[in-house]
TrEMBL record:
Needed cofactors: [4Fe-4S] cluster
Primary subcellular site in the record, as a coarse category: cytoplasm
Name recorded for this polypeptide: tRNA-2-methylthio-N(6)-dimethylallyladenosine synthase
Organism: Sporosarcina newyorkensis
Lineage, top ranks: Bacteria, Bacillati, Bacillota, Bacilli, Bacillales
Domain TRAM: 443-506
Limits of the Radical SAM core domain: 210-440
Residues that bind [4Fe-4S] cluster 2: 224, 228, 231
Length: 515
């Protein structure tokens, strides 16, 4: 391992230069401390094998860095970002920092950002604006921007130009470098920028402070190689790379031993799991088959790509047990022509065929999806195909979005003849259908008994508890607070569009997970 690799793995041997230094001094010391992102480099997919690092440790010189200091992380975007926040919180705690949920009390504020649509980015710029007075009041406050937006050069340039309240920017490939980045930020007057536009490695053994004790996220793979023409993720998250099965199984076993009740396996495209292994043949179906033997009540995964959803996985999911019968299967559009331009690599017909296979093997399966409306040049007829596919599949729920052009992606260069009013009108029509069909899907629950993993108080009424069924339906009911964290039975009294109200029956006795 050379010095650069050691540094990347968080194993620096030399001390960084101390005292106030300039950008130039640092670039002499170690090139990547001031490395700016490049979408062009991020797009490359070379032959280089994935490197696995499992030797993360906090260097002696950084221990105690956080003594008497508090950190605050605001997270935008998907579950992968939420989970990265848990890792960064783990690193902060290992450095001796204390967590706070009040911005005003924080000594370090991180915005863990999302780049998926323009409005996600605008929220972050808005928040940076709000933080400026706080920084002026307390110049020793550190403000950092990390996550997917940091991987875009246009964002970094905009921050450099307009948001001098920011002290550090780092990307999705180097969150394990947080101790170094903080150190640099404390020592330097300049903005610290460390963003690596590489394909990506897998770093194990990172500390984590999970949000709650009931449900846990577990990364099974990172990155995406699908390059759907509208999407920024393959540029911000690097290439598809899978964690080794033994590391995942070990983590899930540990979580089961700690009493967690539900695991969600995470990846941008979990169905590609294992494709990158060249020493073993082991795919998502194999992983699920191993995980279902672990004594933990519920296992989910997100997000599925229809293209890599193979028969073996369906066969394993059909075994049920702790593998829940809810599958989120983004379709994006019901028009084969649109799907082609989006480079989704499946057609309306093949998607319907897959749905059919899933429903045949798992008749109780609940399906949800993601849809983009107003993709460049989408015609009314093509949009109607999305509406008809939605009805035909009978989805329980959908996340629906108006297409947002992302700089650097192929779709951003396409001419677009669809006016924004038309896109908005289509979204409204689709959302009406989504609501109506969700209400329809809820109706049969009236009078039924469902199993609910109780997560805590309902957001609307602290006297009421709330949790989710295996099919991810929100259930509200009254019960003693002692059942929080348990799986309970509830008789449904009322079915609403997005939730069910019921009557508590009792705690479900421990069920042996595997038959
Ligand atoms: N990897 C997942 C999706 C991750 S992004 C998959 O392929 O299924 C979550 C959702 O955001 C996508 O499914 C898509 O519906 C939406 N999305 C992605 N890029 C978008 C864009 N440029 N404009 C609007 N919506 C977008
Ligand atoms: Fe984006 Fe497509 Fe990858 Fe999903 S599969 S993250 S939509 S490029
Ligand atoms: Fe957003 Fe990055 Fe997730 S762009 S959706 S935070 S992978």
């Amino acid at each position: 391992m050379n010095e650069e690799q050691r540094l990347q793995a968080g194993l620096a041997t030399e001390d960084a230069p101390s005292g106030k230094t300039t950008e130039k001094d640092y670039s002499k010391y170690f090139e990547s401390v001031y490395s700016a992102p490049s979408l062009k480099d991020a797009k490359k997919r070379g032959k280089k094998e994935v490197e696995y690092h499992d030797n993360f440790q906090i260097e002696q010189r950084f221990k105690g860095m956080g003594q008497g200091r508090k950190f605050y992380i605001r997270t935008y975007g998907c579950q992968m970002n939420e989970h990265d926040t848990e890792v960064m919180a783990g690193i902060f705690m290992a450095l001796g920092y204390e967590a706070t949920d009040t911005v005003k009390d924080a000594d370090v504020i991180l915005l863990n950002t999302c780049a998926i649509r323009e409005n996600a980015e605008n929220k972050v710029f808005g928040e940076l604006g709000h933080l400026k007075p706080l920084k002026l009041e307390r110049p020793d406050l550190l403000i950092g921007v990390c996550g997917c937006m940091s991987q875009e050069e246009s964002v970094v340039n905009k921050i450099l130009k307009t948001y001098d309240q920011v002290d550090m920017i780092f990307g999705t490939h180097n969150i394990h470098r947080l101790p170094h980045i903080l150190h640099e930020a404390y020592m330097s007057k300049e903005m610290v920028i460390e963003v690596w536009s590489k394909e990506g490695d897998v770093i194990e053994n990172l500390p984590k402070v999970r949000h709650g004790k009931i449900k846990a996220w577990v990364n099974i793979m990172y990155g995406c190689d699908k390059f759907c023409t509208y999407c920024i993720v393959p540029y911000t998250r690097g290439k598809e790379r899978s964690r080794r099965p033994e590391d995942i199984i070990q983590e899930v076993r540990q979580l089961a031993a700690e009493g967690y009740k539900e695991i969600t396996l995470l990846g941008q495209n979990v169905n590609a799991y294992g494709k990158d292994f060249d020493d073993i043949t082991y795919r998502l179906g194999d992983l699920m088959d191993d995980l279902r033997k672990i004594d933990i009540p519920r296992i989910r995964f997100t997000t599925s790509h229809p293209r890599d959803f193979d028969d073996h996985l369906i066969e394993v999911l059909a075994k049920g047990g702790n593998l829940v019968d809810h599958i989120h299967l983004p379709v994006q559009s019901g028009s084969s022509d649109m799907l082609k331009i989006m480079a989704r690599k499946y057609t309306r017909e093949s998607y319907l065929e897959l749905v059919n296979k899933i429903r045949t093997a798992i008749p109780t399966a609940s399906l949800t999806t993601d849809i983009i409306v107003g993709f460049p040049n989408e015609t009314d007829e093509q949009f109607e195909e999305t509406m008809s596919l939605y009805r035909e599949v009978g989805f329980d729920m959908a996340f629906t979005y108006i297409y947002s052009a992302r700089e650097g992606t192929p779709a951003a260069k396409m001419q677009d003849n669809v006016p924004m009013e038309v896109k908005k009108e289509r979204l409204q029509r689709l959302n009406k259908l989504v609501n109506d069909m969700s209400a329809e899907a809820m109706k049969p629950y009236k009078g039924q008994v469902v199993k609910v993993l109780v997560e805590g108080e309902s957001k609307k009424n602290p006297d009421v508890l709330a949790g989710y069924t295996e099919k991810s339906k929100l259930v509200n009911f009254r019960a003693p607070r002692s059942v929080i964290g348990e799986i309970v039975e509830v008789r449904i009294k009322e079915a609403k569009t997005w939730s069910l109200d019921g009557e508590f029956i009792g705690v479900v006795k421990e069920e042996k997970v595997m038959s």
